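Recall the central idea of this unit: under ordinary conditions, the amino acid sequence of a chain determines the structure it adopts. In this exercise we apply that idea directly, starting from the sequence alone.
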Amino acid sequence: MEENAKFDIMQHHLVPKHEIISKDEKEQLLKKYNISLKQIPFILSEDPIVKNLNAKEDDVIKITRKSPTAGESVYYRVIIHG
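Accordingly, the structure predicted from this sequence is:
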C-alpha cells in the first residue's frame, strides 16, 4: 500500500451500511415511534464512520446490518458531540 493511500473504512466487510437519513425521514422516524432524538442511541461525532459521511451533530444515521436470522436489521444512531 502506498504511504499516502488511505484505508476506506466503508469498504471493510465487517462494516455495515451507514447512511444519513433526510430531515423528513428523521421526522417520520420520531413520529412513528413517538420518541425524541434523546431517546435514540448515540454515536460520537469523532467516530470514523461519522467523519467519513461528513455527518453533523443531530443527524441520524441509519445502519443496515446483515442478519443470519432476519436477513437484514436496521438500527438508528443520533450523532452527538463527543
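The mean pLDDT is 90.
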